[in-house]
Amino acid sequence: MDLRESISNQTDVALSMTKLLVSKEARDKNFVYSPLSLHVVLSIIAAGSKGPTLDQLLSFLRSKSTDHLNSFASQLVTVVLSDAYPAGGPRLSFADGVWVEQTLSLLPSFKQLVNTDYKATLASVDFQTKAVEVANEVNYWAEKETNGLVKELLPAGSVDSTTRLIFANALYFKGAWNETFDASITKDHDFHLLDGKSVKVPFMTSKKKQFIRSFEGFKVLGLPYKQGEDKRQFTMYFFLPDAKDGLPALVEKLASESEFLERKLPNHQLEVGDFRIPRFKVSFGFEASDVLKELGVVLPFTVGGLTEMVESPVGQNLCVSDIFHKSFIEVNEEGTEAAAATAATILLRGALSSSKIDFVADHPFLFLIREDLTGTVLFMGQVLDPRAG
């Protein structure tokens, strides 16, 4: 399977997850998450699974085998997620960490895999008497790897003496727009909320040509980031429904049509008429296990499938307890800063057109950050109210 096909599958998974997140976790609020970060943590769990548990994870991640998943992760880390800043592009940082109970040792094959394909740092820790300290250590790691943007990834009480492993992943992105906005012409305008009320928020504007495409019921805007010298091109896309309350229907459409993204992204610059985008800042966290279970990933959360991780009979009784995810994004005149982190705790249980086009984002919209050469989606989210952090 080539990288592009794997990424296309991963995007389909991301869109189905986004649809469920919008209806379950973020029905009435701004949200942002990194499908890529979650994908990597689930891939590591899959690498340590076998039998029906592994089959379920592979089916969900639309992958043929763990070999395929691991080589995909390895390619992503080296091809898509290496820092572009030295060559003049966006600042990117991507890190994996694994914390293992000191009385256990990882199976050599699993250890080598997380070391080489996932470039993970490994730590041997004392969950049995120092669970709180270990949780703090993971939180400090996530905060450091995301430049201080993701704090308290693991909530209080989420790690205890029954925890045996923690897998965590952190992603940080900071890109400057190819064409920055002039902050001196940013002005307050009305933004229409889903409940019919409106609020005043700062809108950025520009008279320069923009990458816009218009479809029946919605428009798509692409704002490219400075590219630098390598071939990767990162872009932020805004999906704006025509109707003020049209976002839920647009999310539904996005998730139900295969390769929807590929076919809808703008690739030509057009003259703009009225052009306004709000500044916004979103921080969002959730525990992903309920969403995953609803999407058919049930077995990793029950005992018996995670037998390929540790060298001990204890491996028979491991299961995933929680998958915590946190993301942050800020969009302003200069560009975008975004970060995400995901941690899975594994615990031990008893054996149980050409004319001018307008683009006025003055009502709820969807956004995503994507690397266009490969099609990798790094972040997705929605803005219902730009004032709410």
UniProtKB/TrEMBL annotation:
It comes from the Eukaryota. Gene3D superfamilies: Alpha-1-antitrypsin, domain 1, Antithrombin, subunit I, domain 2. SMART domains: SERPIN (SM00093). It holds the Pfam family Serpin. The keyword DNA-binding does not apply. Keywords: Protease inhibitor, Serine protease inhibitor. InterPro entries: Serpin_CS, Serpin_dom, Serpin_fam, Serpin_sf, Serpin_sf_1, Serpin_sf_2. Residues 15-386 form the Serpin domain. GO terms for molecular function: serine-type endopeptidase inhibitor activity. GO terms for cellular component: extracellular space. The keyword Transferase does not apply. Belongs to the serpin family. PANTHER family: GH10112P-RELATED, SERINE PROTEASE INHIBITOR, SERPIN. This is Serpin domain-containing protein. It comes from Vigna angularis var. angularis. The lineage of its organism: Eukaryota, Viridiplantae, Streptophyta, Embryophyta, Tracheophyta.
